[in-house]
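Researcher: I'd like a structural prediction for the single chain below. Treat it as a standalone chain; there are no partners to consider.
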Amino acid sequence: MGLSAALAVLLAGWAFRRVWVGILAGVILISACVAALGLHGGTWRLALTDYTGRLVVVLAAGALLARGVEGGLSLLSRRSLVALGERTRRALAAAALVAFLLRFGGMAYPLNFISDLRFSMARASMVREGEFLELFLPNPALTPVQWETDATIPRSPFYYVLTAPLTALPGDTDQLAMMAFSSGVDALAVVLVGLLVRGRGERRAAVLAA
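Model: Treating it as a single chain, here is the predicted structure.
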């Protein structure tokens, strides 16, 4: 938990460019953990400690994503593809970071059940095993039985082509990587919204849209 608090301090301080914000984030995280451990005689201890390792992974992945987004936006600015100042780039990267942490942080909690995860993992495994055409061509057999319909539901296999290599990871890391990938895509969508608004408005409007 100490490592998670340190990462939270660094990320919050970087995102808001204020040291005190980072310290506040660390204090809030530690206080929440202490409170959870003390509730109901410590019965929540297992639920919390089971998440500490994954929380470090979530925060570290968020840091990589945020730095990558900021670096990508800087590259676009240097090539005059988009007009973004330093503050706007940092704000958009921070928005992507928040979106990523909210989504991946919730999905990565071990006691959460992700209903679509098995569906996505199975189809990504089909691509890895060379059964791409079964996904690409209409195939009523692939329609989930829970939908209670025999209709063919068109579904782009492109996502499974990108995530197929993740199925080769050992243990449950393949599922964690799949969740991180989908969360990263959603976070990049936040940046895209900001860029679209920035192309037609002011910096503040772009940040608020993101």
